[in-house]
Amino acid sequence: MTTLREAPPEELEEIPEDRDDRELVKASTFLWLSPAGILVMALFVLPTLYALYIGFTDMQLLGPHAQHFSFTGLANIKQLIHDPVFWSSVKLTLIFVIGSGIIAQTVLGFALALLGQRAHFSLRASVGSIVILAWVLPEIAVAFIWYSFGQAGGTLSQLIGHPGDDLLSTVPLLIVCVANAWRGTAFSMLILSAGLRNVPQEVDEAAQLEGASYWTRLFRVTIPIMRPTIMTNMLLITIGTISDFTLIYAMTQGGPGNETAILPVYMYIQAFQFNDLGYGTAIALALIVIGALLSIVYVRQLRPELRRVR
Amino acid sequence: MTSEQEQLEDLLVVTDSHGSDGEPRARRIRPGVLPGISVNFLLLVLGAAFLLPLIWLVDASLNPHASAALSGPAWSITNYRAALAAGAGGAIKNSLYLAVVSTIVATAVSTLAAFALSRRRVPFKASLLLVILFLTGLPVTLLLIPIFEIFVHLGWVDSPFYTSLVLAATSVPFAIWLLKNFIDQVPRELEEAAAIEGASELRILWRIVIPLAMPGILVASILTFINSWGAFLIPLVLDANPNDQPGALGIYQFMSANGAVHFGPLAAYAILFSAPVVVLYLICSRWLNGGFAFAGGVKG
Amino acid sequence: MANIVLDGVSKFFKGEKAAVYDLDLEVEDGEFVVVVGPSGCGKTTTLRMLAGFETPTKGTIRIGGKVMNQVQPKDRDLAMVFQNYALFPHMTIEKNLSFGMKIRRSPKNSIKKEVEEIAGMLGISPLLGRKPGELSGGERQRVALGRALLRRPQVFLLDEPLSNLDAALRAQMRVELKRIHAQYPVTTIYVTHDQVEAMTMADRVALMQGGRLQQIAKPETLYEQPTNIFAASFVGTPKINFFPGTLRRGDSGVELDFLSCTQHLNGALGAKLSQLPINDVTVGFRPEDIRLAPRDVAGLAVVSATVELVEPLGSETNVVARVLDQVITCKFPARTGLSSGDVIQLEFDVLQMKLFDKESTNHLN
């Protein structure tokens, strides 16, 4: 039996319908999401909103304003602006993040990745393991090790020939930066070696044929190709380092004086030692702002690549 | 020498083993000055530099007269006994509690959420995913004071359980993101086939999706565990009870107590505290063939 | 009764043309229907709607008389063989096969017995302890089939199950599938893009294009009486030949001009065509309906052609010849003794001629 079909109508009705039925909305969807949702709501969203409030109050840990605190408007902000320790803290934070994080870890990590690429296999594996071990150690252990190293009579002072020097008093920022670099390099090493592996060999070989030297190839070919990876790595390092508390607090408590008081440490000191929760929160908010600004810089750099991925 | 290594001589990076700060640094030198430096040598030197602090730690833990300086090992376990006497055992137990509870909660919660985000239609999914990604970078420093206040009101301070919930929460965004990517890779057809066979959603999740996403689940759990194990600031603020102190706080107490620093016992304490995590990493890396292929995790 | 009725079923995706438009299809209980068509014709979407993975935007789907639009796949009592088999990679073959029965809580012994029985029937018994990753494509396909059979469903759905197999295996599986269907005559919907599978396996063929059902008919009927040009060219290898033609109506009736012939159209066809206001037609002849004519025979539909290409296939020979500006493919019996450049006489079997309205492409006779 044959059937004759009529010519199709030109205009087809457009019924708004979701692209993919397979992703059905069911009641169960919300069931799956709810535990995570509740946790995130309660422990992220709510506190963030609350923090936005506390930062503008005179709330205290103990004392008259612990229970009865009031909104003080921009008082905390004004205090921040006029607080030399705050600004020094900002500077220290930037030095810490950029110096020991972005520069040191990236350079060391990249060097290790590059060397590892061409080294003897077992050497690469063992050095890699050592570097990663430094990373896996709990932060307090790292703090203790470098605290001891930087002491008067510690290994570092011995190595530089001044065994009596308490490096933690003389160059505390440097020591904590070194400690942080030692600890964090593994992360960059892993990410950058993965990135290196993704650089197509043919491109490097083509450059070789053109007569490019190793350095030229590295800076003109390899690194540009790896740009997204490098940028992402820096972004992640920044995010991780900027709120780092344990390492510095355990090593120096922000001292001597305030010489190593990066923002998270300063926040803690103000909130829990100087009793000023409101001001401490304001400092934390400042920290977020700085972190966000830095992130925006990276995301801007990454945007062309991100668009392609999406 | 291979041609690659010959090319590498153009590199001529030489490690200056004692820079002004005692930390080995790589510096460039004009080509032709120092031939014969091979990649292996450089790597060895860097490796040795990284190894030094670790060697000191082990050495100090075994030397009853340990000081801040490196000295020969003396092979004694006195320090370990002292560490245990100082409360290492209890502190490590506390860390275990915090880590285990937070890992279980975080993994369970994240797996469910990742499943829903990967497979089901969720309103505003794209924005939600972006928010989650953003949350992975949110410093805990901002949340700590408000959470502290809220917990005080609720009477939830000084409780290991609620502290571990906070620890779980800090790992959840990253875990969701990681797990969603893993679950995305499980072919949808398998779920459809199971559905045709009459399987309910729960059964599909339990018997099909979770077993196939297991590598991701394990990675997420291990990362959460490691993160929570070394927790310092969060327990410091939320739990003032000295009996609840996890290892990180215990070590810190020990460091800052009683005037002189007891390097030997502290080193032993640090090693005892680090050992589980290191072992976990070794098991995991053997299982994943040579280290975390994808490294991540929020520090601090 | 597991018959299937699709009534006015349409499926729209946001912002795109309809994937399936106004589909009316009835499948009898136990019938083997092959839904065939080129990529994107809507056949897979139709299958997925039957399975329950997509919901029809309009229309109703009834299985066994019950409306199924809102029913979950797991409750539809169907079995499906996926194109990529969809075997659970982390389970053994045995667990894969018994998965559904465990859900239905069949007793352990009967599970074991049935699994062994089906495995024996499909020749996969030695594979029961292995995992899908260790099996070849053909073996996996049979496991997928086994899993579907074990469900004892009211409807079988198959989504291009043979497309990942090599030609020899495909031919073998075609026979096996038909044999299995003879043994378990379950209503079957089989989706493919391969017209050979459609023609050899189907009780009826449903041809789709652009989301619409073009024709549903027995294979022979589809072949001999295609509803339109698309249907005519979809089945048959080599493809049907088309040339333009003109109809002239005169006192003696309707005459058709094509190539250099004129054919007088008699009887019912002529009567019908004299009523229709159509002048331009497309004339279709299948390659096997064109013969080598003996020389100098007049009065029949005969044209002179020049041979361009001779393709000996062993059992028959395809000859591509040129008439004026038209290229014609003919199918001749094995040895022809022809070579490129020869001039031959081609005779068209007018009884097998297919006429199509040039505009609407519909079949006229």
Note the beta-strand portion of chain B: under 5%
The CATH topology of the largest domain in chain C is given as Rossmann fold
| Major sheet characteristics of chain B | 2 strands, antiparallel
The percent of residues in helical segments of chain C reads 25-40%
By DSSP (H or I, 4+ residues per run), the number of helices of chain C equals 9
End-to-end gap of chain B: 44 Å
Summarize the amount of helix of chain B as a percent range. 55-70%
Based on the structure given, which CATH architecture of the largest domain in chain C is correct?
A: 3-Layer(aba) Sandwich
How much of the sequence of chain C is in beta strands? 25-35%
The helix/strand class of chain B is mainly alpha
Largest sheet of chain C: 6 strands, mixed
CATH superfamily of the largest domain in chain B: MetI-like
The first-to-last residue Cα distance of chain C is 37 Å
Which stretches of chain C are low in confidence, meaning pLDDT under 50 for 5 or more residues running?
none
Q: Greatest interface and its residue counts?
A: A-B, 111 and 104 residues
Number of DSSP strand runs of chain C: 20
**Strand pairing plus helix content of chain C: what structural class?**
alpha+beta
Structure summary:
By secondary structure, chain A is an all-alpha fold. Chain A is built from 15 helices and no strands.
Q: What does the model show?
A:
The complex is a heterotrimer of chains A (about 300), B (about 300) and C (about 375). By secondary structure, chain A is an all-alpha fold. Helix content of chain A is about 75%, strand content about 0%. Chain A contains 15 helices and no strands. By secondary structure, chain B is mainly alpha-helical. Helix content of chain B is about 70%, strand content about 5%. Chain B has a two-stranded antiparallel ribbon with strand order 1-2. In chain B, a hairpin with an 8-residue loop joins strand 1 and strand 2. Chain C has two domains: about 230 residues, P-loop containing nucleotide triphosphate hydrolases (Rossmann fold), CATH 3.40.50; about 120 residues, OB fold (Dihydrolipoamide Acetyltransferase, E2P), CATH 2.40.50.140. In chain C, strands 6-7-8-3-9-10 form a six-stranded mixed β-sheet, sandwiched between helices. Chain C has a five-stranded antiparallel β-sheet with strand order 13-12-11-14-20. In chain C, helix 3 packs across helix 4. Chain C is an alpha+beta fold. At the A-B interface, helix 1, helix 4, helix 5, helix 6 and helix 7 of A face helix 1, helix 2, helix 4, helix 6 and helix 7 of B.
